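User: hey, got a sec? need Related to galactoside O-acetyltransferase folded
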Amino acid sequence: MSGTSKLFQDIDSQYGDKISTMSEESKMLVGLPYLANTEHLIRARVKARRLQNEYNKTQPTSVLDDTTSGAALAEGQNLMSEDRKRLLSQLLELPPSQVAKVEIEPPLYVDYGTNIKPEGAFYANYNTTILDCSEVRLGDGVLFGPNVSIYCGTHSVSVKERKQGLERSLPVSIGRDTWVGGGTIIMAGVSIGKGCTIGAGSVVTKNIPDWSVAAGTPCKVMRTLTEQERA
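Assistant: Yep! Here you go:
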């Protein structure tokens, strides 16, 4: 039995006879089998699609013109225009103050948006995909290269379960000051520690401890940062 299958089995056992009283969204957020095509979840995804489509059409800050001084250019490097900040606040359902240090280059793709939890400064380059059927926690100072994908959503290996239309999901967390290289895929249930570097093109299927330099498919720890390299 794989680690994920064992985790799902443990979750099923933990909730037992409570499952029948839970909403599909509640099941989704704790890793139980759930039906994604209920009215509430469909409406939530449609709302997210509309907001992300608006976000992806926005223009960057308007400071970049031929007459702008060097100092103003340096100050305006943050490409989050007021439209982008407003739409991101709505998409993540977070107050503007909580997304003030978040920079995400369009295009951005999400399932719900509301389960993405930045804990401070966060930068993501082009074409970020976050399937946030579960909580995605992003520590202060996390950086994404282009084409990074986080897949919280998954399916059971049981064909019977899939034919019933059931899906599964597990949370993902990334610790502070971690850099995720371009083209990396982070799978459901993964926790990446603080101060890590994940090499471009990696597929992260298991937890990565603090201060690790890791890469590969599947992603493996190559070395641990020395005390002098940590902050």
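Quick note: The chain has a mean pLDDT of 92. Let me know if you need anything else on Related to galactoside O-acetyltransferase.
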